[in-house]
Design goal:
By secondary structure, the chain is an alpha/beta fold. It has one domain (3-119). It is built from 3 helices and 5 strands. It has helices spanning 30-38, 60-68, 93-103; strands at residues 3-13, 45-55, 70-78, 83-91, 116-119. The strands form 2 sheets. Strands 2-1-5 form a 3-stranded parallel sheet, with helices on one face. Strands 3-4 form a two-stranded antiparallel sheet. Helix 2 (60-68) runs antiparallel to helix 3.
Length: 120
């Protein structure tokens, strides 16, 4: 029996003028991503990929949910004698999913929204 896996990839951008999936921008190579993911496919599996772009400038709800899902963490790096602290920003995709579900009125239900989030 064949297993079907559908991968939804969402590119979250600030505005339409910047397209991270455009080859000229060299930010996100969708074809390379697919090639790498297909390496994990087993003989009884079938993979399909869909690329979606979401613009924060066109969707106020997305922009607010996205901004509230950004967090920072201090990470200690370096050697034992010379530790350094770096502040890193990351996106909490679970929080983003939860915020979008709440804003859509689906708070009590399971909302499967993102498989992969790529932010530019």
């Amino acid at each position: 029996m064949t297993e079907h896996w559908a991968f939804q990839i969402f590119l979250v951008t600030n505005h339409r003028a910047y397209d991270p999936a455009n080859a000229a921008e060299q930010a996100f190579d969708f074809e390379a991503f697919k090639r790498q993911m297909l390496k994990f496919r087993l003989p009884h599996q079938e993979f399909s990929f869909t690329l979606n772009t979401l613009e924060q400038s066109a969707d106020k709800t997305l922009a607010i949910a996205f901004r509230s899902s950004l967090h920072t963490a201090n990470v200690v790096t370096g050697s034992l004698g010379l530790p350094t602290v770096e502040t890193r920003t990351y996106l909490d995709s679970g929080h983003l999913r939860q915020r979008l579900a709440a804003d859509a009125g689906n708070e009590g239900s399971f909302l499967f929204f993102f498989d992969f989030i790529v932010v530019y």
